[in-house]
Every structure is written in structure tokens, then in C-alpha cells.
Amino acid sequence: MEDTIRHSCTSKGFAQSEDPRRRQKRLEAYNEVLWRLRDLKKVAEASVPGFEDELRTHFMRLCLRYALGLDVERAEDVLMHKRLLKEAENPATTSPVIEVRLVEIHAASDGSRGQKVKCECPCASREERLRHEVTIATKDKLKLFSRLTNVLDEVGLLYHEVHAFTTTDGYFLGVFCGDCRSYEGVEQLKHVLVAEMSKLKS
């Protein structure tokens, strides 16, 4: 398996000075995601008044790499990221907000996708291709990334790929993809993570 990859970027201050071409690429990604979400009839949120503005704000508060790295075929991931950040902004939230799920890993063609890692065997079973994806949103602070990875190490998540972002208004969004054999299911892993992350007060 490939070594752990840590990708990160900060969005602080880019909005006022961003190159017009970069801004255009961001808007293109936004439009593609918006179109796909509206095409998915089951996503009722996409038809709610004001949704376009909320989605545009989400894209503009994060760095360009976030927009370019999205898998538009999984446009609903953006809704999850948006929801987690909104929960993290709630004054009543005192610890990182977490989502845990299983994702199927496909062979990466160009290495640019966040949830794609190269499979060791093209004939691997579906179970072997499944990975745990842990998404975390919280208020950004000094040494946060190190503290989060320490918790993930302690619970036994062997992450192979990490994507970390900070927003223009000082929040952190991180996606950790890897293996965890220590727990029977996703809910058990999430329960343990929530308990451990609660020790990291915002």
C-alpha cells in the first residue's frame, strides 16, 4: 500500500487577491456540482431557495484545490462537508464534528482525487477495496492536525490518504481515508471517535 499522503491548504486571505483564472475554475466546479445535485431528484436541499448562494459561499471559503479535487460524480459529498462545517460553527459545539462511512476505492488514473488510491491488486474483492473514510470539521487552532492524527492513531485507523483544508473564517475540514480492523462496524468506530474527539475541546 502507498505511504500516507498529507495534503493541506489554507484559504486565509485568498478571496480578495485571487487570480481571475483561479476564481473561474472554482466557479466551474461549483456549477458542475450544483447541476449534478439538482439532477439527483432525491436531493431536496438543492431546490430550496437560497441553496445556490449557500453552495457558492461554501466553495469560496475553501481553497481552489478543494474545488479541483472533488469527484463530481459524488457531488453529495459537498453537502456533507457543508453540513459538518455548519455544525462546527454552532456555538454549542465544543468538540470536532465527525462523519464516518465506508467508501469503495478505485484505481486512480492521475493521482489527483481525494478518495482514490491505487489498488494493489486489480482483482481485489469488494471487501478488500472498502476503506473507512473519516471526515472531521472543527474550529482551526494551533497543532490541531497533529492532535487529530494522534487520536486517529490511537483508535487504530491506518490512514493512507489525508486531505486537510482551512476556511477563510478559520475552520478546519479534513478527510482521512484508511483501514480500521479494530471495530465491528462504522457506528462503533464513530462512537469511539466521538468519545475521543470530545477531549479536544474547541
Automatic annotation (TrEMBL):
Parts forming coiled coils: none
Keyword Hydrolase: yes
Bilayer-spanning residue ranges: none
UniProt KW keywords: Hydrolase
UniProt superkingdom: Eukaryota
Record region (Disordered): 1-21
Molecular function GO terms recorded: [protein-PII] uridylyltransferase activity; hydrolase activity
Keyword Hydrolase part of the UniProt annotation: yes
InterPro entries: ACT_dom (IPR002912), UTase/UR (IPR010043)
Domain ACT stretches: 133-202
Annotated protein name in UniProt: ACT domain-containing protein
Organism (species): Rubroshorea leprosula
